[in-house]
């Protein structure tokens, strides 16, 4: 043992130093690489944002294209990159700057360079044509080869093969395709701009060149509504229409966007509101402001693309219970062209607080759908409070309805709104109505309530006067609680029908009660609520989205009318 050599102290220190060095390298190197990659990524993002900010294109980033895509510059297959939501260009990140300089985007106005304003040529873009598109020359399918091939006009959406493209086709006048009656041509806006400089306002002369069928469409989309589909829809509409016609109401208020109607012929404009019932009400309020400003001859007709949770108004007008992308945007535009004009009653809801020293002005709301006090308003109040705290958690229509179900189940056990008949007095057209032991009162203007339930008809087993949204009458019903509301929605019970009236007056004598107008809830103390007719709104009704309930309801209405006519004939 004594003959063995012991390692020198400095050799142990040297080995420990190597160990420490390799440990530091193994820890710091990944950190350094991660930091360097994040720095490069930040620099690329800043570079992209700088290009986006200065560009005339509407560039958007994407992590994955939804279909096989090829860069319009290098022609290579790409999975991620950027695309223009106005003209449809798609590029790799490295080719973004070249594409921005090489390819012009849609021109919302033509340059007055001496050429005829009504002779607008096609604007062709090569590659990435829509699936199932066909060549206008040979009528064969386009875009079937796995490469950058074939052309598409960004205005009329016509497609043509590379080999079918001719000089005559390149110089051919563009007719704006299928949606020519909805598009505001750039030449029209250029002429309007020139007329305003000359202080002329006879826009009908310009519109006569576009034909009698020209009904330009303005898109007002709420990018935050319901399932957050608004952002994608904005891009799809910009591709099919003139980008100047498409607005995001979260960035441009409806009253400002609707001023575009004043540049169009009288009573010609149509508006498609993409959002929930709240967004529709916001737009209709802006239309009322146009009336106050003396712009009544420019009032548009309003259609709805439902993106909200309940969507009762859009359901009443035939546009369905909710849009989830199952119908192509082009088909939505066709539906708007086929829709018929109708009137919708709008009502003024005035809430006057009680008290000896109440000097506040009465609160005023505008009602399109319904007013209620009771369990359904309580559910809406709880839902609204939680959505205000965490809006990102309430982006799913199914999740939102599940939250409503939770609070409805909770109220079945707690019954916070019981003995409502002891707390309120109800008057219909000035006559007081005796109420049974209710928990809620609902005043209806439209046929649907609670996300698709025809409340006034109930199970449809009893004959009652027909409910309409344009007759100047309100339908007033009562419910016995949250469980009763659930029974009505699955057609296991009827509501307590109180009556129809032109004016409704409700007096809350004591305590706090939840109230709502068109899904906007609040807690209200003793007050007097008066509902009177305010005005009419011009809406668009689409009959192609009728459900089985609508068809049966329509047939019931026709049967009742025939019965009434037969009774009158017998009396005569």
From TrEMBL:
Annotated metabolic or biological route of this protein: Lipid metabolism; glycerolipid metabolism; Glycerolipid metabolism
Membrane topology type: Single-pass membrane protein
Organism domain of life: Eukaryota
Domain Phorbol-ester/DAG-type residues, every copy: 56-105, 121-174
Enzyme nomenclature, EC number: 2.7.1.107
Residue ranges of the TM segments: 20-39
Catalytic function, reaction form: 1-octadecanoyl-2-(9Z,12Z)-octadecadienoyl-sn-glycerol + ATP = 1-octadecanoyl-2-(9Z,12Z-octadecadienoyl)-sn-glycero-3-phosphate + ADP + H(+); 1,2-di-(9Z-octadecenoyl)-sn-glycerol + ATP = 1,2-di-(9Z-octadecenoyl)-sn-glycero-3-phosphate + ADP + H(+); 1-eicosanoyl-2-(5Z,8Z,11Z,14Z)-eicosatetraenoyl-sn-glycerol + ATP = 1-eicosanoyl-2-(5Z,8Z,11Z,14Z)-eicosatetraenoyl-sn-glycero-3-phosphate + ADP + H(+); 1,2-di-(5Z,8Z,11Z,14Z)-eicosatetraenoyl-sn-glycerol + ATP = 1,2-di-(5Z,8Z,11Z,14Z)-eicosatetraenoyl-sn-glycero-3-phosphate + ADP + H(+)
Location within or outside the cell: Cytoplasm; Membrane
GO biological process: glycerophospholipid biosynthetic process; phospholipase C-activating G protein-coupled receptor signaling pathway
Enzymatic class: transferase
Pfam families: C1_1, DAGK_acc, DAGK_cat
SUPFAM superfamilies per UniProt: Cysteine-rich domain, NAD kinase/diacylglycerol kinase-like
Annotated region described as Disordered, given as residue ranges: 547-572
Gene Ontology cellular component terms for the protein in this record: cytoplasm; membrane
Domain spans labelled DAGKc: 212-353
GO molecular function: ATP binding; ATP-dependent diacylglycerol kinase activity; zinc ion binding
Keywords, ordered alphabetically: ATP-binding, Cytoplasm, Kinase, Lipid metabolism, Membrane, Metal-binding, Nucleotide-binding, Repeat, Transferase, Transmembrane, Transmembrane helix, Zinc, Zinc-finger
Family: Belongs to the eukaryotic diacylglycerol kinase family.
Cited function: Membrane-bound diacylglycerol kinase that converts diacylglycerol/DAG into phosphatidic acid/phosphatidate/PA and regulates the respective levels of these two bioactive lipids. Thereby, acts as a central switch between the signaling pathways activated by these second messengers with different cellular targets and opposite effects in numerous biological processes. Also plays an important role in the biosynthesis of complex lipids.
Protein name: Diacylglycerol kinase
Gene that produces this protein: DGKE
């Amino acid at each position: 043992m004594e003959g063995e050599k012991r390692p020198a102290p400095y050799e142990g220190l040297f080995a420990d130093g190597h160990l420490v060095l390799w440990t530091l390298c193994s820890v710091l190197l990944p950190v350094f690489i991660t930091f360097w990659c994040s720095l490069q990524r930040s620099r690329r993002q800043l570079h992209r944002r700088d290009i986006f900010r200065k560009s005339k294109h509407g560039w958007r980033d994407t992590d994955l294209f939804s279909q096989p895509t090829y860069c319009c510059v290098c022609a290579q297959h790409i999975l991620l990159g950027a695309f223009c939501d106005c003209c449809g260009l798609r590029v790799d990140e490295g080719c973004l700057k070249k594409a921005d300089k090489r390819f012009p985007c849609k021109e919302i106005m033509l340059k007055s360079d001496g050429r005829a304003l009504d002779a607008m040529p096609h604007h062709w873009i090569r590659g990435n044509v829509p699936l199932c598109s066909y060549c206008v020359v040979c009528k064969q399918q386009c875009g079937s080869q796995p490469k950058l091939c074939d052309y598409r006009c960004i205005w009329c959406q016509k497609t043509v093969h590379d080999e079918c493209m001719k000089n005559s086709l390149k110089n051919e006048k563009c007719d704006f395709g299928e949606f020519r009656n909805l598009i505001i041509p750039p030449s029209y806006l250029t002429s309007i701009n020139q007329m305003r400089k000359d202080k002329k306002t006879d826009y009908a002369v310009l519109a006569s060149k576009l034909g009698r069928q020209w009904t330009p469409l303005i898109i007002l989309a709420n990018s935050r509504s319901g399932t957050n589909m608004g952002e994608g829809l904005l891009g799809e509409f910009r591709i099919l229409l003139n980008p100047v016609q498409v607005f995001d109401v979260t960035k441009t208020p409806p009253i400002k966007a609707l001023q575009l109607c004043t540049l169009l012929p009288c009573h010609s404009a149509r508006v498609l509101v993409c959002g929930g019932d709240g967004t529709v009400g916001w737009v209709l309020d802006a239309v009322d402001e146009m009336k106050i400003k003396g712009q009544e001859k420019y009032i548009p007709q309003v259609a709805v693309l439902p993106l909200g949770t309940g969507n009762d108004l859009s359901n009443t007008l035939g546009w369905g219970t909710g849009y989830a992308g199952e119908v192509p945007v082009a088909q939505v535009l066709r539906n708007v062209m086929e829709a018929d004009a109708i009137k919708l009653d709008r009502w003024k809801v005035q809430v006057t607080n009680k008290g000896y020293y109440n000097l506040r002005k009465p609160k005023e709301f505008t009602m399109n759908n319904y007013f209620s006090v009771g369990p359904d308003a309580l559910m809406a109040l709880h839902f609204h409070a939680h959505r205000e705290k965490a809006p990102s958690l309430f982006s799913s229509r199914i999740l939102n309805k599940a939250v409503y179900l939770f609070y409805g189940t909770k109220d079945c056990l707690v019954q916070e709104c019981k003995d409502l008949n002891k707390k309120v007095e109800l008057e219909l057209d000035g006559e007081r109505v005796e109420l049974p032991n209710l928990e809620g009162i609902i005043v209806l203007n439209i046929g649907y309530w609670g996300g698709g339930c025809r409340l006034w008809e109930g199970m449809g087993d009893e004959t009652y006067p027909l409910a309409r949204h344009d007759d100047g009458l309100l339908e007033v019903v009562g419910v016995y609680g949250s469980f009763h509301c659930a029974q009505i929605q699955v057609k296991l019970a009827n509501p307590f029908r109180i009556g129809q009236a032109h004016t409704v007056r409700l007096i809350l004598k004591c305590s706090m009660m939840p109230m709502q107008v068109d899904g906007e809830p609040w807690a209200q103390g003793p007050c007097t609520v008066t509902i009177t007719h305010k005005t009419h709104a011009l809406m668009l009704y689409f009959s192609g989205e009728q459900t089985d309930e609508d068809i049966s309801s329509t047939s019931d209405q026709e049967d009742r009318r025939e019965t009434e006519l037969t009774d009158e004939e017998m009396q005569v």
